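Q:
My hope is that you can spare some time for a protein that puzzles me. I hope you can help me see how the letters and the tokens relate. Thank you; the sequence and its tokens follow:
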Amino acid sequence: FEDGLPYTPWAAALRTERMANNGIDNPDSYCLPLGHMQFHTHLQPRKIIQTPDVIVILYEASAGVRQIFTDGRSLPDNDPLPWWYGYSVGHWEGDTLVVETSHLRDNGWLDFNGSPHSDQIRITERFTRVSFGRIETDVTIDDPVAYTEPFTVRVEHDIMLDTNLIEWVCEDEQSTQYFER
């Protein structure tokens, strides 16, 4: 998109407001979980653990944990307890892991730039290992409340097989005292 993401008027106004106040309401600033695309674009490493029924992604950033169920279940029609990172189910198409996610908690932040999302968001990710040391992830965002049409972003990651994650601790009570409202 030449002029940025295909925001609806509501989403464009909210993003403009968030940028005007320097992102003071970014959940990351308050030791809350990052937005979905924030994790994909964050520079800190992640570890992927695969079992026959679930894939777990551990994110060093914000000590995030994400479950992707690969046991054949479908996305729930109604989940009364939304998840910070959404409810995710995955299946393999050849060498590509396809993950569908819904029921995100409406924290409203998709990325570091304040792009919003609504409780209607649906995300499809396609994880492909393109070489020994690289994974490409195509992320499609479909949220008719925040965007006029679905859009896809490609993110590339290095695979760091011999690297351990370090402990991430966010000191909410101590760090937020410096924020002004």
In short: The helical segments are 9-20, 36-41, 172-175. DSSP finds three helices and eight strands in the chain.
